[in-house]
Amino acid sequence: MPVTNVSHDIDALTLTITAEFAAPRARIWQIYADPRQLEKIWGPPTYPATVVDHEFAPGGRVTYYMTGPEGDKHAGYWNIISVDEPTGFTFTDGFADADFTPIESMPVSTNEFSFQDKDGSTIATYVSTYATAEGLQQVLDMGVVEGASQAIGQIDDLIKG
């Protein structure tokens, strides 16, 4: 499992996941920049993602839905804030309805994904910041740590293939 550390800080409103991959930073970057590769790792194995729109540039939007084991669909979106290939990108991530309209009652996070070279491998740091402690706690209660860890774990198989 590539995830090496998970921590959350209710006072700082953050969830931080660190992972290490046996691939160069440019390869890890490609996974997020290519919607077909992103689909293979964004949702956990039991909730695979389908990327609908993928404008991976500042001001762009990525829309997706994850399909559960019973066929249930859960939509979400990214609003891209910045892109610095291949070192990282920032975006807001939120829950959406079937038409990709944000669900105002659900938490939105601001995310910074960063990638650093380490002796031919990549250290990825995923930091999600929430507006409120209640929003962070809500996603923790929904299983975000387990789901994100499983999703990130799929990157190893993708980079081997």
UniProtKB/TrEMBL annotation:
It comes from Rhodococcus wratislaviensis NBRC 100605. It comes from the Bacteria. This is Activator of Hsp90 ATPase homologue 1/2-like C-terminal domain-containing protein. Residues 23-159 form the Activator of Hsp90 ATPase homologue 1/2-like C-terminal domain. The lineage of its organism: Bacteria, Bacillati, Actinomycetota, Actinomycetes, Mycobacteriales. Belongs to the AHA1 family.
